[in-house]
Amino acid sequence: MNNREMALEYFRKDVAGHQMQVLRDDGVYRHLLFKKPGTGIHHFNVITYPGTLVYTGDMGSFVFQRLEDMFQFFSSDADRGDGINPGYWAEKLVAIDRSGNTDFNEEKFTRVVMEYLISWIRENRDRTTKDERRELWEAVVNDVVNADCDTKGTRKQIAAHDFWHEVRLTSGRTYSFNFVDFWEHSFDDYTVQFYWACYAIAWAVKQYDAANLAKEAA
Question: Is 6's pLDDT higher than 90?
Fold first, then answer.
């Protein structure tokens, strides 16, 4: 399960009992508080003023700027997939929680490493023995895939950059396998907290719009 899927699963459980409190509602000046009555766990605030939306709560704090009415900006993606557009929305961030909004994605790193390895094995299957291919596979798994992982994935990426393995072809020639141009790849993904905040904002806009429609109908 990737960060986006994990965040959506958590979000749905976390806000199951949440209710909206409208603390201010004056044109584009809004302050909405979402929380489960009797507890502040997983609470969050959505605050807007001209050109800006502020999200703050248990999952961090993020400030976005784009349109005069930021609810209009976020509602424009309501019908897109799961209702969020994190890549585009992140471009509108002007302030980010101190923990940041991206981190190293180990799953993505492993996928790219194995793509390099499998591609090379397929291209050289007829020129290498089964034992040579197995030895290369085990070296990559042990030295790169299973390398120590720190928060930013620096150790794993260094392990990939420094990896070198000599493979003897059936012709007698030797070939040095390494991860060519590995630096071109990015292994960052948005954090679970940032995805959660995106789901929270999209959901907040829907709750606010639904409440206003109910008022008009009454």
Answer: yes
